[in-house]
Amino acid sequence: MRKIVIATRQSTLALTQAEQVMEHLRKLCAEHAIEAEFEIKKIVTRGDRILDVTLSKVGGKGLFVKEIEQALLDGEADIAVHCLKDMPFELPEGLVLGAIPEREDPRDCLIMRDGYGLDDLPQGAKVGTSSLRRSSQLQHARPDLQIEPVRGNIDSRLRKLETEGFDAIVLAVAGLNRLGLQDHISAYLEPELSLPAVGQGTLCMECRSDDEFVLNLLAKYSHEETAIVSEAERTFLGKLNGGCQVPIGAYAKLTGELDGQRRPRIELTGMVGSPDGKQILKDTVTGYDPELLGTSLAEILIGRGAAELLDAARE
Ligand SMILES: NCc1[nH]cc(CCC(=O)O)c1CC(=O)O
Predict the structure, then answer these.
(1) Is 122 helix (H, G, I), strand (E, B) or coil?
(2) Which of 58-72, 256-270, 290-304 shows the lowest per-residue confidence on average (mean pLDDT)?
(3) Are residues 218 and 269 in the same domain?
(4) CA spacing 20 to 30 A to 177: which of 15, 16, 126, 184?
(5) Among all residues, which ones are annotated catalytic?
(6) Does 82 share its domain with 133?
(7) Residue whose C-alpha is closest to residue 281's, from 140, 86, 118
(8) Where does the Porphobilinogen deaminase N-terminal domain lie (predicted)?
(9) Which ligand 1 atom is at minimum distance from the Cα of 170?
């Protein structure tokens, strides 16, 4: 009997995700007559210890994953469950993404004190988000809004809507759904208005690249279409040398058309913005090769000044 330890951060969202994944893996084991038992191990990361500081100020990619990856490398855990959007482009030597399961809702949403959409926000309304991607796009649509950082886990951000005088806060739909908090959502923001973060709404499972048992199990959990769109978005992010702390968004979807090798056609939209939303570079490319698409979209935006925008935002 193989024992599989699942490592996770200790936030409510991370724990919920790990538990949902564990249940699914147990079912897969039963279906495929694989003998394994599972256990969850909570790990406190550097990102969790500095939750009160605006992350973009602290800098550093993968603030939430380093310690968890070390546990995998040390053999103290076998699988790590992450939000794909929190994952740096490059994984450490010896680790791979063993599974990318089916994407959930990729959109951002508004949780508002009153009203049901962006248009209901009064002139100069105070909106909470620490994401430069979200502030850039919101300010672009509504330059009058006053954007203020709001840090912490999802539950504490929801509390801050009440306690810190925000008219609205912005969160990912997927996280709220997973926590059963979808009733709080006032308005869904379509990708045309707020292009999601790379990988938003998608989970991933990281494991050691030589752990055949776990790789074999995780392969049964993977969702081919999601893996394809994730590769397009993540290639775009990687070429721009971005993480989730820069004003970059991307969203890829499949259009249903197949090429000669029956590969699906991909439509990839990407954006790079200034944090104040005065400048937004955005374009869409379509094709069949996710890596080529990610690369060419990044090159198109770099040609229009994306690298300079990102350098300025990083300062
Ligand atoms: N940066 C934190 C984070 N990482 C993933 C999600 C949401 C869930 C997901 O995208 O899978 C969130 C919270 C948020 O942005 O509202």
Answers:
(1) coil
(2) 58-72
(3) no
(4) 126
(5) 86
(6) no
(7) 140
(8) 4-214
(9) 16
pLDDT tens-digit readout, 189-248: 999 999 999 999 999 999 999 999 999 999 999 999 999 999 999 999 999 987 657 899
169 ligand 1 Cβ < 6 A: no
Question: What's at 29, amino acid-wise?
Answer: C
Provide the 3-class DSSP secondary structure of residue 142: coil
- Same domain assignment for residues 10 and 83: yes
- Cβ-based burial of 95 (10 A; exposed 0-12, middle 13-18, buried ≥19): middle
Confirm if 64 and 86 have CB atoms less than 8 A apart: yes
Residue 194 domain-assigned (yes or no): no
d(CA 188, CA 93): 39
Q: How far is the CA of 33 from the centre of ligand 1 (A)?
A: 34
| Same domain (yes/no): 136, 268 | no
| Span 234-246, pLDDT tens digits | 999 999 987 657 8
pLDDT at 54 over 70: no
17, 91: one domain: yes
Residue 195 domain-assigned (yes or no): no
**Residue located nearest, by CA, to atom 8 of ligand 1:** 175
Task: Please identify, by atom number, the ligand 1 atom nearest to the C-alpha of residue 172.
Answer: 16
In a domain, 56, yes or no: yes
pTM over 0.90: yes
| Domain of 254, in residue numbers | 228-314
User: Phi and psi dihedrals of 205, rounded to 5?
Assistant: -120, 120
Residues 13 and 62 in one domain: yes
196 lies in a domain? Answer: no
Look at strands 203-208 and 79-83 and give their pairing: antiparallel
Domain shared by 97 and 112, yes or no: no
% of residues, the chain, pLDDT over 90: 83
Please provide the average confidence, as pLDDT, over all residues in the chain.
93
**Same domain? 242 vs 301:** yes
Q: Residue 138 sits in a domain of what CATH number? A: 3.40.190.10
Q: How many domains does the chain have?
A: 3
Beta bridge partners of 253: 267
Burial class, 31, CB count within 10 angstroms (exposed 0-12 / middle 13-18 / buried 19+): exposed
